[in-house]
Amino acid sequence: MSDLLEEPLQKYYTNYVKKESVQAIKKITLHLMLKNLLEFIHSKDDLFANDFIQVGSIADGTKAEAVDELDVLVPLRKDKLQVVADDGNLGTFSIDEHVNGTWRCFSHDETILKLFELVTEYKKKYYEDNPFFKVRKKKITAGALPLMIDWIKIDMVLCIEDALQFSDVKWPFPKWLNGQSKWLSCQQQEHVRRMGIDMTCHGIQWRPSFSKIDAFLLGKIDSKGGYRKKAFKILKSLNGYYWTVDQLCENYRGKSRPFLGSFMMKILYLHTREKYPEDQQWESLGKSFCNLLEVLNQCCNEKRLDHYYQADINLFDRVADKTFQWLQEKIHNILEDPEEELS
């Protein structure tokens, strides 16, 4: 079956996924501009770190389309915080800071405003007459400051690194990050645990962020992904353009467009690496793509996609039965008639 997929997949990758080299040059230019920006901001207010952390699909090497947006974390330098979980699933947290001898809610809106003012000052000083450098202030509960540089949308997201050091919460890593992974060494699993859990602001609350761990596992440990990465990019492209909620069902009420969001896709990839840990299991594009489809089909059968970074969390726990049937129909169609489905 994988042999029949090989040629249609190669054509699809060449026509719809493969990037031009100019994208790499654009990425380097943006990095330099952002580094200079963060150094300026830090020189004015050392609450903000003097560099950014690139996250998202560009950082972990899974970008399936042209570079049109960039996600960066802006670490905040705080040494006295209280971090408390707001729910039993550890989905949201409250963070207090120590100011003038008392504890108060850490004011992310003040911080976003301060960041906006400093970026505006930087623009006036270095890019005042440049229409391709734009900064826009968002509503008060925004968790990120949006920039536009050379038509690239950039979200500067406030981040507290290893936030649980200020909490009594011990993060519940699953078994495959506690010594039982089939593809990660014990040292690599320990490194993930030692990286800690970052927090990014979301409205007036804070949420765990696994973006840095994503970048480490997919972008560094699995950087030479070869056919794995190509197959994943094809699946991600299909999911983004053709497996959309508009096709899913008329009365779909979810927010994700496409249904399988970027985070779910990466979790699927990591579980596929667990099931197929050996390089020879990914020796062709067709076989690699079939590996991903098989794990997705298994998740649909079990109605379960386990969180890769947190024990006892099913990311498919609220998915309707007809959604699984719809996804499995898509998988079946690709395997039965790849020329038609991938043209």
UniProtKB/TrEMBL annotation:
Pfam families in the record: Mab-21_C (PF20266)
Cofactor: Mg(2+)
UniProt GO MF annotations: metal ion binding; nucleotidyltransferase activity
Mab-21-like HhH/H2TH-like domain span: 228-332
SMART domains for the chain: Mab-21
Keywords associated with the record: Magnesium, Metal-binding, Nucleotidyltransferase, Transferase
Family: Belongs to the mab-21 family.
Designated name of the protein: Mab-21-like HhH/H2TH-like domain-containing protein
